[in-house]
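Write out this protein's structure.
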Amino acid sequence: MPSSLRAFFIVAAVLGTSLLAAAQTNSSFTCQMRATPPPVATFGGPAVAGKGQTELGLGVGAFGDEFGNACDPDLVGGTDWFVRWRCGVGGQTDLGFDALVSANGNNTQSGVAKLAARFQATQGLRLEAGAGAADSGNGRSVNGDLAAVIGTYKHPDDTWNYYASLRLAASHGCFNLFCAGGTGAPGSRAPGAIIPLGTIGAAARVSDTGRFIMEAGLGGLFSRQQPNRDLYIHFALGLQFVVGHDRKQPGSRRGAGT
């Protein structure tokens, strides 16, 4: 196994363990919106930005949190405005961030950002790991996610490519930004949650450097403070641009699935 892939799996395992441990376990029931998860948009196929390339994504989306019959209203969600930036640091790895601003259905706003790394394990498989923080009308939180993305691998001039992903996201409510200590009144931090999410999407070529992205996801939302399993729904569409040249493969994008 290549050393870079081994290192990625070690980091992913540590992050995954931390995500599961961070979910709050207070068993008191509440219909309060969960702590804000990280940006969960896959937004493209299994490619990474090659060395010397930059990827920029701009999108709009919607999400829904289905509480079931225990809470009213049943479905609470909102709309998102999404920005992604990635920079290739090698033939198989890129680094960057996702930022999201949401207008929530409960008349609150939230902002969330995460730092993320992506590793192209094979031509049609990408692995991801990210960690971030959020500030919203439901309070502050830290969050993170792990994902695997598969998709078609075609010539960049092909009009359509398709992809799917499996993602595990988690969030943990805080009294202060980045959970930097301190306490507050009971109920002043949002309940933590774990969200397994499956997503399918398509990328349509609109120019040599641009793709139109559309995707939909469905998953569960689990919290010890909510006795019923909740449903999490995700939609996104927007534009993805990749500029620069892969120095190993001039004029192309390594593993271009989008």
